[in-house]
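User: Can you fold this complex?
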Amino acid sequence: MELISQHAKKIMEGCKERARDNGLTFQDESLEYIVTNRDLLELSPKNMIPTLYDYWVQDVEVLKEKGRYELYPSNPYETVINTRPAISFYNDNNPDWLNVMIFYHVIGHIDFFQNNLFFRHTWDYDFASRALSDKRMIAKLRSEKGRWVDYIIEFARAIDNLVGYHQELAKFSSPQQEKTLNRLDFYFDVFLQEVKKVSVASYVNEIERFNTLLQENPKEAENQYIESVQSKYAEFESLYTKYKETKKQKKNQDIFEFLMEHSEFLNKEENRWMLMVMEAVRATSLYFQPQIRTKILNEGWASFWHEELFLKDDRINGHEIDFAVVNARVTAMPRVGLNPYALGMRLFSYIEELGNKGRISHDYKYLQDKELREKFDKETDSGRDYIFLVRENCSDSMFINTFIDQDFVDLHKLFVTGKRLNKERMTWQYYVKSRDAEQYKKMVLDSLYHPPSVEIRVTDDNSLLLEHVFEDKPLVREYIKGTMLGIEYLWGGQVFLDTSEAMMRSAKLPAQGMRRDEKPPQEIVWKRVRYRMKDKVLSRKDLN
Amino acid sequence: MIKELQAFYNRLKKQGLTPEQERVIELELKLIERYQDSGFDPQSSTRKMWQYNDLEILQNGAVMKMAYTSSQSIDDLIARDIQREKDGFPRKVRIGKMVKPSQDGDEKVVVVPTTVEEKLIHDQIRDNEEEGEGEGGSGEGEEGEVIGEQPVREEQGGQGGAGQGEGGAHETDSNAYDMGRILTEQFKLPNLKDKGKKRSLTRYTYDLTDKNRGFGQIIDKKATLRRLIETNIGLGRVQAGQQVNPNKLLISPADRVYRILSQEKDYESQAVVFFVRDYSGSMHGKPTELVVTQHVLIYSWLIYQYENQVETRFILHDTEAKEVDNFHTYYNLRVAGGTQVASAYKMVNDIVEEENLERDYNIYIFHGTDGDDWDTTGKETLPQLEKMLEYANRVGITVAENGYGISGSTEVEKYLKKSGLLDEKKDLLRLDVMKKESDESRLIEGIRKLIS
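Assistant: Here's the predicted assembly.
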């Protein structure tokens, strides 16, 4: 790995100047390296972070079973990494004009990394340095503890997709924690409504009673009132104490934090080194989270700007056709398939145009008349500002959910492709399944990263209970065992996992008018099951 | 085809079938309708969203197509895995999983150490196998219009999708011999006890086997003494009934017998292995994978044991048997038909007879099936099997249950047990029954059962 030539660096600096003039904001410094295939060999298993810790799995082909890991995209594999300064990687022999294009693309990414709020938690430190110190720490531990370090890495990585990424982000946007209710609020908001489940009339009566007290004696009203409550309901005080305790416990911890704080095993003196390893794995995962969740936005944004800036650049006169060829390859909509560069870029252009015509407004949204809609143009010219807002505040799912509409789908002639077996011709046929914007949106959303959400509790007998929150999706069964094995080790005791499994059942009554040889429609029946991992043995039972 | 099968089924029904048998056969017939003759599994030819990346797209990098040079050898990885087992965790490195026999018939097994990082991840519900999942698309076309076709049977090399196709796989090239060595050494598979020497090869070794009188490299004491006594009897110095005085014996120079170095023809053992696999509809998915993986492992082990002197034959069967010429086809081909084990056994017997293999080869036959057989009593299969056992060194039958029937009572298993052949010819015939969920260690355990 070596730095790019002075000549190329000068081109890069020129690109930065022009990008800044167009409103992109990013740190001055950046590092550009030439990489050989050999370098890439080492870099790619480490997600392009040169200083990432070593782990034997990086030396092995990780099996991507068909259908499985398609749903579960591997970590990002990018030319630019979100470090301070940002680092980007290049082939050795790119011509100048191509470098200009790539540099703009890279600057687009850097701008995105440093301004999109989903990266907020990565702004205050340099991940490359942090990774380096973790790598050294792990290497040192390995020299002391040997293979056990790798087991801990393995078990920690098994749960690294469950990190509390959004909790981490929430720390930045809402500094005040959810408040613990005082007695009075607890009485009205929780006790009466959830515990006593009183009728609306008696609830209003209670409020009335309190208000009367308040008018009579504003200073003492609350105390008097609570005393009356306490004498009326003997259990009130103990329930309130219990509530305060659970509130204290429920610090919104993710599974890592929970295990690290509550596992007796991990907190034994001789095992405390494991906490360091887990923290390193957790930090690495948190660092990568926003990148997986902003693929379309990030690539779209970078493509939008490389096109915009390249065509304006005075230094590349005469290479427009070369550019067109490469740009088409990058940003053409494929006939079948989903190109995040192309989709993201088009969506940004589309939003910009909406903004320029003042169409991001109530007036336009509720306009029914087709002709008026087509002509609608307030000439607000606020499109550019608006896409900067989108780049700052959106993740992929918000981007897709908010901005893909029927107009966009029609404009670019998008559709959902279906694939079916044709038995006569012995072919898989690809066909236009739907041109409906909602269907298209759903298809894109389904392909986005979405790890399961798991709630953590400790049962009375000190077992760990993980509850997989039901979202119409089962877990991949084969992986449950390996994952729970690790959690059991880290927890130091029995672990339960509650999840839902789908069973296919032929609908009992065949639909009316169905031909006899047609297959009866299948329906999904959900079943809640509990897995138990004890002494490295997995068992499973139905819950309902 | 279905009509013929249906007729065949009706014939069987007349002869009497238990409800369980009927259920299994009907299910298989249903599977036929479902899969028809769908050959290879469908593979998406389009690029998924996550397969786009800057280096490849922007910089036109051929970077993804790299041969993986692992910094750890397979031996190291396996040593690590064995240690792992001692530490009380299940093994994690798999070696037979991504075997990619080449298509051109060149018998090379590629050993790819693989592993899975298990996590809790969401799965998809697949309710309809004839319908692939939706993808994006753009351009002209009415809803419902077909915009392209992809043959179900991929032509050679027709791989698409970066990172998923052949280019993307990281391979550690190694040959089957190495894999056999690993299996034998690391997984402690037994060595073959009796290799049996049959076929001569034009290979020579030099050994002290010829005898020469008068001079030579090493004196053959026993032969020399024998000649010496002979000479002395002739001279009358040794007589029956009298004490022999060794000091009085005369020694002629010609009595000394020596061994001298000579060229010898070497006899090496050689084997032919028949891999027989059921490829009927009910084998779809996991059973096929299990059987094929196990056969690759067995093949590798034999290659090592016979020091590459192994020939292979691949036979697939549903109700009819056919021979295919390479492992790739053997691995991938899938049809949806009924099941008649006898057809395959008969084919093996015919080949052995026609080519006179028995004289020159050690013959091994490994048969993988899900245990269904429409010949429910084995009345056609068993005679063929008995014939087979007359010449075979080992017949190993693997039943990988497909999960449709009742565990532990598949047709093949039942009639084999009933026939008593398993006990009678214990040295020649072995049966291994495994569940659908079996993993690699179970496969290797199975091999041990089949070959020890």
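The two ends of chain A are 58 Å apart (CA to CA). Chain A touches chain B through 111 residues (CB under 8 Å).
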